[in-house]
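Bug report (template v2)

What were you trying to do?
Predict the complex of my protein with uracil.

What happened?
Run completed; filing so the output is reviewed.

Input:
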Amino acid sequence: MSCQRQLKILDHPLIQHKLTLMRSVETPSHSFRRLLKEITILMSYEVFSDLPLQNIHTTTPMQSMESPVLSENTVCLVPIMRAGNGMLDGFIEIVSNALVGHIGLYRNKETLKAHDYYINLPKAIDVGKTVVLDPMLATGNSANTAISIIKKHGANDIVFTSILAAPEGVEAIEQKHPDVPIYTCSLDERLNENGYIIPGLGDAGDRLYGTT
Ligand code: URA
């Protein structure tokens, strides 16, 4: 993993290999979905590396012992709809007792500003680590809006996860929410005039769900 400020780039060879396959315009939706899930599973190794543990009593075939497990309510996953839903399967497969909230945002095509249309967050969001999921960190407007909403609901240990990030988006989060670490698999070159990441992978929602 390479780190720069609060930005953590997950440069594991398995992740980078799968990311290249995801980027290809030839990759169909069903493969894109599977690759996104596999990358998210691999990301979880770093994203959850500091989760708190508590000892429980267990008995092996040989003897009894105290052994660590994850505490209840340690993780809340919050996908930003709709593309963020594509990252949920992978994380939840690894942390099966995670709470899950949803934030629905759309971006105004002219201003590129984010507006919320759906917010449903668990009450216990203030207990553990809240992980925000969105495959594309582009302008940072959606990320910052979602993080502000989550903070208003009481969360104070928040991380943001994406598959790709543009420098503009990273800077936007670092300006508005400098306490929030960003995990991503690639820092791409730039945004184009429509707010798409270059070279990127296109519209993540369309590629996931086969819409255009
Ligand atoms: N959202 C996407 O799906 N793709 C981009 O490149 C930017 C934002």
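What did the reviewer find?
The longest helix spans residues 29-47. Residues 83, 136, 138, 195-197, 200, 203-205 surround uracil (CB under 6 Å).
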